[in-house]
Amino acid sequence: xxxxxxxxxxICYYENERDYNLAKxxxxxxxxxxxLFDAENEITYWTARGSVTKIDWYEITKKQLEKWGCKYHxxxxxxxxxxxxxxxxxxxxxxxxxxx
Length: 100
Fold this sequence. Notes:
The chain is built from three helices and six strands, in the order βββαβαββα. By secondary structure, the protein is an alpha/beta fold. It has one domain (2-97): HAD superfamily/HAD-like (Rossmann fold), CATH 3.40.50.1000.
């Protein structure tokens, strides 16, 4: 399956206001997504970071995913993708998905 995973509020959180540089990983959730990767699903991390401000967050986001140990095939920043399954805080309640 092609699986698109949102980043903000899905695999990371913010203690105060949203500052992408201060995002904190949700490691148990990342572990679950890594298991989907290991099961030979195609994982694309997707974020709307910069879609409104036009700030390019690609490199910072990529470095965060690497630091957090995220396994993935693709990273899409600010572009709506074609997908089979979307795991996102706005489409499927990420809190419910990660309770499984």
